[in-house]
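INPUT
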Amino acid sequence: EEQLVESGGGLVQPGGSLRLSCGASGFILSTYDMHWVRQGAGKGLEWVSAMGVAGDTFYPGSVKGRFTISRDTAKNSFYLQMNSLRSGDTAVYYCARRWAHWYFDLWGRGTLVTVSS
Amino acid sequence: DIQLTQSPSFLSASVGDRVTITCRASQDISSYLAWYQQKPGTAPKLLIYAASTLQSGVPSRFSGSGSGTEFTLTISSLQPEDFATYYCQQLNNYPITFGPGTKVEI
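OUTPUT
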């Protein structure tokens, strides 16, 4: 069964750092574009980052320069390094797989990041 | 960046109703639009992709239409399990963006 499992969430102080992990099973992660999407409590979905098959990376302006996406093909996992965290970064973070150009077809269950003093 | 707007933001409906949600893009996104359903505490579930293609396993009461900048999601006969929040998503280019969501309530 194909599955994504996030980990690494928790409570961090403003200005702090956190690294999220997303482990894949049932498929080879590096053969797909992989993404992070977040959702604040009671809010909508916000795309956070992507890594293409070729290793190219993409970010929205809200996190560019603070967040870094990476992958470890040997571990079939990818990561989101989050630095200079702000209260507005508090959210459930989902990892997701993109199918070709068309949609996100596989999502993890999410991991909660809380930025608070 | 491509902005997506959805209308309505909230929709009160009854079982059996026909429901239509509109998603508008700030620029032409061809057919690179997907629709998701999300229930509280769970990840989004794909319903429609390429604006009008029903994802495998999704009931046929769901349908999508449109291209360019205006898109619709229609539920032909609302069922109890359809009460949820619906999001559109554009994948035409980066940054990928989502609409603000439409909450369908009883």
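end of record. The mean pLDDT of chain B is 97.
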